Structures are given as structure tokens and as C-alpha cells.
Protein 1
Amino acid sequence: MPDTQALVNDFLNKLKKRKIEGSQATARQTAELLRSVISQQRVPYTNQAGALIDAVKAIGEQLIAANPVELAVGNIVRRVLHIIREEDLSLTTAAIGGLNLSAVSDDENDDDRDGDSTLSAAAVAAAARSTLRPPSLQTLLEDTPVSAAVPQTSSSGGDSEGKTADKSSRSRKLKHDVIEAVNELIQDIVTCHEQIAEQAVEHIHQNEVILTLGSSRTVLEFLFAAKEKKRSFRVFVAEGAPRYQGHLLAKELVARGLQTTLITDSAVFAMISRVNMVIVGAHAVMANGGVIAPVGMNLVALAAQKHAVPFVVLAGSHKLCPLYPHNPEVLLNELRSPSELLDFGEFSDCMDFGSGSGSPLLHVVNPAFDYVPPKLVSLFITDAGGHNPSYMYRLIADYYSADDLVVQRRATAGN
Amino acid sequence: MDSRRSSRAVIDPKVRQVGFFTSAPLPPDRTQSDPPDPIRSPPLADASSPGNSLSPVMIPPPRHPSDSLLRLPHSPSDAFPPPSPTTTTTSLGDFSDDVTAASSPPPAAARVRGRGSSVKQQGAASSFPGGGFEVPPSVKAPSSVPASGLTTVSVVKLPPGISENAGGSVSVEVQSDRALNSKPLKEKTSKAERRAIQEAQRAAKAAAKAEGIKTPAVTALANAKSAKSTKPSPQRNDSAVVVAASEKKGGDRSVEKDRKKDVPHPRMQYDDKSRVQKLKKRSVVKPTEARNRVELFRHLPQYEHGTQLPVLQSKFFQLDTLHPAVYKVGLQYLSGDICGGNARCIAMLQAFQEAIRDYSTPPAKTLSRDLTAKISSYVSFLIDCRPLSVSMGNAIRFLKSQIAKIPISLSESEAKATLHSDIERFINEKIILADRVIVKHAVTKIRDGDVLLTYGSSSAVEMILQHAHELGKQFRVVIVDSRPKHEGKLLLRRLVRKGLSCTYTHINAISYIMHEVTRVFLGASSVLSNGTVYSRVGTACVAMVAYGFHIPVLVCCEAYKFHERVQLDSICSNELGDPDSISKVPGREDINHLDGWDKSENLQLLNLIYDATPSDYVSLIITDYGMIPPTSVPVIVREYGRGQLWIYEECDPLASPGRCSDAVFFVDGLIFYPSQHLVLSFWFPDRPPSGLNNDLLERSDNFVTVAENGNFTNFEL
């Protein structure tokens, strides 16, 4: 699999050099890379799932290390791992359907897949089911007696195929299913804008005044979807220094015929009292409902809270990160080049490097991201609908397997 | 009557006196009031009488009578309970009744119900001129009535001799007046005083009108009143009344004018077409209006930037009415060479100085009128160049009042010299010295190891940082900057040159950088009467985030920038800058998304210059009168509005710290540092300022408890 390695290295380089901008692009490319990795991966006769998981984990770890701040990479790796587990489980349950003693087969299965507990496999199955269906009271009720419920439901759909005869077809089927599922995931990532934008009319009314900061494709599509439905509203765009992506957004909005006012970031507080709703995109959404967003967002969120303006975050499901943040302002942040604020050499005339302790008198701080705590967020709109910040952990549990939260190879695993 | 007047004379000047106090040179009115003779200087007394006569109204019922009785052991022996009829006849809203009731008790029986329910007789009151808490005896009677403050006012503001005639009508007026004057209840005494002045004046007018139309009840009342007033000092009575009457009219009218001046004029609204047309006719600059104006800001002028300058330059030789110095300053405003409240104000004043120096009164005109008109034309030219800042508005107001004050007898050269020195004094005292005082105050708030954050470029903050650095304090500065002006870069350059350790960032990163900050120092363009800080746009964001991080926000602002306007948002009043500077990012050629789009109908570029920081975010305002909470701004505005100039040179507490003690009072929301410029003579007139050594123990809405040499005293607010 040298070609895979080349692909991976190429992608790693891109990530390290920050060539890929935007979590959506990153997520899509990660998923595509992992798909090709899976398709290239030779699976052993037994324990195919384990082999796939190991392979994905190995690459996933490199990818995450390449750009730890781009949480979408980790998210997608975890999603793919989750998909593998899920597909394996559904195949297993289908295969063991004919057997009478489900508990025994579960144990067998356990041994196959390096010591995963029965309970976690069942939990994964439950989680898998709930991803397919919107969360409902029924799902929640079903979830509680997990271990008891799983074998029963699976046994009903089981076929009386011979286990041994099935083995080879099963291995091919697993890979095929996984690749199918990853394709679906890529599709989801690509179309998440549309799914989010579909909900726009439910949130934007006539003559609304909306404020946004920086540029986000999701926000653009969202606003434009509302515009297409003949809603007329005005948009204030804060330019989002030092990247000034707001200019880009303003241009796009104007091109699509929306009434747009471009303001400086410093005028956010002044203008927010006349704003009905703040709609912003996010870089990542953490499990606690906190948002990693372009720098300046916390300012907007605080101002919105002060004036009781709803603060709505649009995020595709690939931005949902299953991790709980610790000191995210620093640990999940990135300092960009000072040249965005001060020209190189601009202050060379008044810097005296020759004297003093040698430490420069001038520091320039240019962080890339801001952390918005969950209490400042009024609503998340994802492709799975609108959610409270407090609900995000549950939504996230649907997408990820608890075993994958830490993507780290065991020390023994070789590469 | 006389006693009443004299007691007023005792108190009224003190109410106004908020200047600096030292024990040695007592202000003239104070010394005047010192002698215990109750029958002194009736004209003076009368002129000021309505002012303080209101004080009992504002005094809430005593909370700790025992305390205050202890405090004033000399008075209770003189105390008289109010006659019973007073209490029985009173009913809320029945004004004539109240009047009768109030006037019926003999003056000697007047009961004090004021501060701490110190009960005093008039003799005591006058012999202790400093005892500012007790009210004039004649006034005390009504206050003893358990009626609402409203009724008491109606009694109190009756001018002696005249206004009884129209007692009823007057009181009605009072009511309506009060409704009109619904202002924050903060500055109780000063407001009360002013209101009383106004009401008294109205009363006088009404009385003049209603002469001869006397209802029997009112007549009776008048009789009672006159009887009462004659008792204490019959020998002076007649003349006093006459003098009082005439004095009152004149004095009150001027006071009334002052009062009206105090109410800020409505600002020019640029969405009012007719007025804009009128303005255009007058204006010299003739700017072209911007095309894509933001709908929300129609009421603000927004002109095509850069068009005025060439026009003005070409007009230089046609504008013969304009003094070249003023013209130059106008151009500098227009091009942005001079910006910042202080710099603009000083430049303007110096230009006016030059203009006044070269001024000569045209024949058949008086200097004061012609010069005022001239200044007004200059001002309107400057407004055309750039809207006035609050600081400039205040300076212009000062200059005009100084011009108006020039006596006609003064020769032209003398008048010009006076004005010249007045302007000089204004610049020195209000700006330069004020900044120095602010620096002295603020430096005490900087400790070693601090990380100080500042936003934009404020001259006061810069001086503070430099001074602290010169003092050898070890601290770091975080300079937060914003588009489009990037004023912080200039500040950064100056500070780095001086060797300060600086961190530079932009406003979006404020939440990131705020973690390490220990103090936030902000400048202000103006501080408004409701505590709102009107400053460079973005200040509110910085203050908000600091507030969110529980970091103290210190606003440094000279008191001459305070303004009695109130404002809740940044939209009703603001200034719009050049919109083109929004779409272009200098030094970043890659940001060119909006090239060619600014002509689009749908795109508006908004370049706000100022924003309003709510007072909740401000921990402290450092001003030349000390460090005050934002709630005390109206008090400063009120007292400052009197046009008093404090002479720093005479008793600069910082120059001679030994002369004043370090007592601190919190009264009416004000932190009083007697060692600085505000002394509480107004609240504690009987305390020699040198002896102040009190600690605040407790403060509530109505009183403060102060420990004084081991005694606890409640001072009601």
C-alpha cells in the first residue's frame, strides 16, 4: 500500500502547512483519505474489523497530530472508526441471529475483537440505531435496557445462514459496507449546508436584522435560503479582522441581493442593540456545547447576551467534537502570523535589541480562534435540527463510539 | 422674615460651594455667614432664599434620631414641637390647606426635622452657620407636617410678601413643573435647589399676574405669613420685603436662564430636511452627501469624504469672514491631522485666542455681542469640518459665557486681554492640570506586576502609563487596536520608544488576551450624565469583556468633558467616518473583495466613530475631581455646570499634601476626597475641612454612617 502512504503523507503535509482551510474541506478530504485507506487495506481472515480499526487509528493519529487544532480531522477519524464498529456489529448480529445462545456468541465475538466488552458492543449498536432515527422518546426508552434489548431485536431479523460458510463473504461484505457508509458520510458533509439551510425559514422572519461575523459558507447558504423564500431582511456583517472574511461574505450577500451593511468589529457592541438575531458559523462544537469559532466571536456572544439577542450557531455534524474542552482559549487555539497586524519591520526603528535583558519589548498576539462558552449560545442548528447547548453531548454520543474518544495506538501496535 | 432670610444666607452659598476648601482662606460667602447675627445682609439672603428653602423637602424623615441628638447636643433645648393644627389640616394635594398650616406656626416654634432630626431653633441655626443640616426655621414648619414633599414645596417656594397672593395657583404650577422635571433622583440637593429657584420664580410671576385676585383663604394665609415673618425682626421688615421683592425678580430670572441653559439643546437631526436645507445655505464647506447611507443613521450627517478639502482650499481667499487660524484648524480637523478630544479642544481654543487677539469691534456694535456672533460663525465652520466633540462644546460654552460676562465698561483691549487669559486658564486648568491630576490619581492604581490593557490611543492613558513607567513601576501594557484608524499603533510606537513592555493585538482577540490582564484603562471622549462613557468605538466591547472577566475598568476623563446629556445606545448620537476606509484594508492587498462593490445599492459601509459604554461596565472614573463611580457623574456635571473654576495653583492638594487630611466620604454616590478637589462643605458645612478624618462605615440609599473620632454619626443624604 505505498500509494496510500503517499496520499497520507501528502495530506499530512497539507495539514501541517495549514493549506486546507475550513473544517468542511478538511472533513471531506479526511473522509476521502480514510476511504481509500480502507479500500487499500488488506483484511485478514479473522478479526477484519480489528484490522481496519487499527489501520484507521494509525493514520488518524498522524492526521490529528498534524493539526491538532483542526478538530474536524479527529471527528472524521472517530466517525469512520464508529462506522467500522457499527458495520461489524450489524454483520455479527446478523450472522449470529441463527444461533440460539446469543450470549455465548457475543462472548465469542468479544474475543474476536480484542476484548471489547459486551456492553460496549451493545451500546454501539444502540447508538447506531439512534443515529439512523431522530431521537425520540422511544429511542430513549429503548436505550435504557441496552444489553437486554439488543440481542432480541437482532435475533428477529437474523437469517439461518451457516456461520462457517458465511465467513468469507462476511469479510468482503464488511469492507464494502464500511466504504458505503463512509461514502454516505462524505455525502453528508458535502450536503450539510443544504440540510441546515432548509431550516432557515423557520428562524428568519420578515424585516429581521441579523448580525454575523466573519465568513462561513453555512451562514451564507442559510441566509440565502431565507432570501429565496422571499423573506426580506438586513444583514450586518462584522468584518472579522484580521482575516477580513466578512468582506467576502458581504460581497456574496450583496451579489445575491441581500441588504448588507459592513461594520467594523469594534462596532459590534454599538450595533447589536438593533439586531434581532446573531447567526454565526463555528469552527468546532465541543461536547459541552461550547463553540470554537473564529476570533472575535466571544465578543459578539457577550454583546448578544447583554442585549438578549439570540445567538445561533450553525454547525454541520462533522464539526461536532466528542471532546470536552479544557482551557480551550489556549489549548485549542492557534496563533497566526503577526504580520497580519503589524507589517514586518514596521517597528524596527523603535526596537532596541542591543540593550536590556534581550527579551523584546513588543509582542504581537494574533489568535485564530475564540471559545464561546455554552451559556452564551442560544441555539445550535445542525443538519439534525436545532438543539440546545446542553443537548450537544447526547447528539455527539450518537455519532461516536465511546471507545474512540482517545485515538491513540497502543504502545504495542507497530507501524 | 429676616431670620428666615438670614438663615438662607447662611446655607445657600454653602450648598453651591463645592470648590476646594482649606481651613485658612474661607470663601467669602462662608465668612459672611459666620457671624451669629440673624439679621444680616437681607438682599443677599433674599436673592438666594428660594434655593435652600427647599432643602427640608429633600430630607427624609430621620432614621436614627438618637444618634443625631447626641451629635448636636446644643440644639434640643431650643426645640419646639410643631403646633398641632399643622398636622391635622394637612392633606396630600390640598395646597392651600398646607400653606395655611405651614404658615400658622410662629417662627420661634419652628421645628427642625432635617438632618438626623436635629431639633433647633432659628437662633441656633444662625449662630451655627456651619450646621448645614438644619433648615431655615421658617421652612422647618412645613417640613414638620407629615405631608408629602410636594406640599411642602408649595409652601416653601412662596416668595415673601408677594407670592402668597397666588398661593394656590403656584402650587399647581409646582406640580406640573415637577412632572416636567422628572430627572434622576440622584443629585438631591442641587436639583432641589434649582427646582426651588425655578418654582419661586414662577411663583413670583404668577403673583404679579394674580395681584388683587385674592381668595379669602389665601388672604388669611398671607396675613398669617406676614405676621409670622415680622415677628423676629420687625425693625427691618419693610425695607427688607421691598428689597427682597425686587431682588428676587432679577435674580431669579437669571437663574432661570441658567437653568434653561442647563437643559441640553436637542441636537441637529440630519433627517429633518428643512433644517438641513437651512444649514446648507449657511455652510461654507458644502459637502456632498454620501450615497449609500445606513438607514439607521439618517439623523447623522454623512458626507462624501475627501471632497471638502479641495473645495475649502480653493475658497481660502473668499472666506474673508474667517480668521486664518480658525480656518487652519478646520482644515486640520477635516484631514484628520488633529484628532482626540483634548487635542481638538486645545487647537480650537488657541485658534480662537488668535482670532480674538486680531479682533476689533466694528463701530456701533458692542464687543460682547459681535464677538459672540463671530465665535458662533467660527464654530459653525468647524462643525462643517467635523462635528464638535463634547469637550469642544463645553469649551465653547465656557468661552461664550466669559464673553457675555465682560462688563460693557471694559475697554476693548482689556476685554480681549481678559478673554485671552480666560482661555489660557481654561486650557491650563481644565485640560493640562486636569490631566496631571488624573495621572496622579491613576498611578496609585498601578501596582508592580500589573498587566494594563488599554484600547486605542488616549492621551490621558498614555500619560498615566508613561508616568508610572517613570516612577519605576514594573508593569506590562496590552494595547488593543481596531480598524480602521489603528490609533493603537501610534501609541504602541510611542510607548515602545519609551521602553515600556507592550503587547499588541486587535480587538477581536480581546477575550484571548483578557485572561492575563489585571486592569483596564480607557480614555473617553465624554462621560454623560447617566454614567455612560462615550468613547472611541470598541471601548464598549473592551469594557464588556473586562466586566465579564471581573477585571476593573478605569475610565480616565477630564471633568470638562462631562456632559449633562444622557444616552443609552450608540445610535441616537454618533459620528460617521469615511465609509471607504472600511472596504479598504491598508497594507493588505489580498483583501480586495469589495473593490467595485461599494457602489452597489445593497451594500452599505458603516464607519462608526464612537460608542456608548453602559455605566455597569465601568468600575471607576478617574477625573480631576478624584476617583468617582459612574453614578456620581451627574453630581460633577451639576456642580461643574455652575461655571466655577477651581484654582489649582492656590491649593493644589498634591503640591501640599499636608494641608488636607485623607478623609474619604461616600455621599450621594460620590467618593469625596477632601484632600483633592471636592469637599463636602455642601453636605458637612459645619465641619472644618482640615479636621476631616472620618471613615465610612455604612452606606445605604438614605444615609451614611461615618465614624468620627470614635463617634458614629449618620448623615442622611
Protein 2
Amino acid sequence: MNPKRCAACRYLRRRCPKDCVFSPYFPPNNPDKFACVHRIYGAGNVSKMLQQLPVQTRAEAVESLCFEATCRVEDPVYGCVGIISLLQNQIQKTQNLLPRTQAEISVAQIKPSQNQHSAFM
Amino acid sequence: MGGPGSSPCASCKLLRRRCAKDCIFAPYFPSDDPHKFAIVHKVFGASNVSKMLQELPIHQRADAVNSLVFEANARVRDPVYGCVGAISYLQNQVSQLQMQLAVAQAEILCIQLQHEPTLQSHHQLLELDQGDKALLLHNNNIDNFNSNNNNNNLCYAMSSGQFSSNFAPSSIMQMQMQDPPKQESLWT
């Protein structure tokens, strides 16, 4: 066994060529990373996706694929769409709260001047 | 639904196979929307989708398919970041809104402190984080809260949610589930 095989080639039990598309992004010390991505997307699809991207963007693409795959494993029904939904709800709640809080500022600014006025009557 | 005599579902059409009566895809990929399965197949692969659906109870499969279609569309639109791009954008929006809210709430507190310093301040300050209290107590120039520069400094100091550049779904979900600062404490 070649100890220098990347995690993908180790997982797929194949030889790791010099120009392996996976090896820069799936080092052998992190086998779970490829296992997760493979489980959701499949090695063939990941390979195709990476090959269609310029080399300088592949690292980011791999990280986002790993993130989405991990989300899907943790939540098999909604995956990362669950997070998007949570964030949208949070935005909605905060947007509803903001005008109320700004109105309270106006009230707080008016209130003291009314108290001062009444003190001199 | 697939079966003898009826038209094959979109998946079996694309995969060029007979659509069985119990085809797992048929309820979710009708033949009148071939694009839906095509995009999911492109990103995830038919066999992976089939495995995922088989592992789910039937009543959850429709939602799972819809979320897979959403993710696949996002990935095709943005091959580098996919859905993560949308998450990043929304997180920034949440951060900005929470900062605006924090600034507004601090302004209310400062106005109250200006006018009722002895009666209210101790009770209200107990509701703030230590860092927030320190900032408010040390900032003697209350008029400057209205200027943009100092609001930004206050925003930066008071914002407790740090945007995580580390793609860890559990940690991002925990961070985002924090509620905005409570309103009632400022008025008691």
C-alpha cells in the first residue's frame, strides 16, 4: 500500500496518480472528509465538478461541498436548506423588531422633556 | 406514478429504464418536469438520491426532494459555493441587522441613563454582557452615540455573534439560533 495516497484514493482503493484531482483537497490525514462527500455526491460527480472549475477555485468548492454534505448527513431531510430557512426566519424577526425599537427611541427622547415641562407648571 | 400503461416518471425517462410500479422517484419527479430530476441527477447522481430517499420515512421524502432540488440548483448557478454562498450572504444580513438592533437598544439605554441615572442604571446594566457594560460605563460622551463613527465602534464592540469562516454546520446553526437582546429589560 502506498502511504502517500490521498484520502480519496485510499477510500476508493485505487492507485493515486500524480495528477489526481482529489489529492490537493483530500489529504490522507482526514479520511472522513472524503467519505462524507462521497456518500452524498459520489466520487464521479465530485471529480466532474472539480474538473469543470479553474484550479484556483477548487479548494473553496471542495470546502463548500464538504459543508453541504455534512449538513445533509446531519439533517437528511433538509440539509443546508434548513440553515437557510433558520437564517431567513431570524432576519424576518429582527426586521420586525427594529422599527419597534426605533419607535421606542423616539418615545424615550420625548418622555424626559414632558417630565421637565410638567415640573415647571 | 409509474407502471404498465402509464407514462414513465421523469427519472426513468432520463435513465431510459422501465418505470416500475414502486419506482422510488415517481411520486416526486413527474414526467411533466424533466428538468427537476435532470439537475438533481447532475449534482447528486440518481443512485445517491435513491439511497437517500430509501433511508427516509415516506412522509419526509417530498421535503427531502425539494431541498435536494434547491441545493442542486444553487450548485449549478454557483459551482464554487453552491448554497454556502446564500448562507454566507444571509449570515451577513443577520449580523448587520443585529448590530443595528443592538445600537438602537443601547441608544434607548443611554437616553434612560441620562435622565434617570440612579434609579434604573444598575438594574438595566445587569442585563448586558460584561463587555457591553464596560463599554457603556467608560463612554462618557453620550452625544457621540449619534455620530456614525462612534456607532460603528459601539456596534463592533457590542456585536457578540462572530461570523464563522470555519464551515462547521453545527456551530453555525448554534450561533444563528441566539435570540436578539431582550426588549423588556430596558423598561423595567
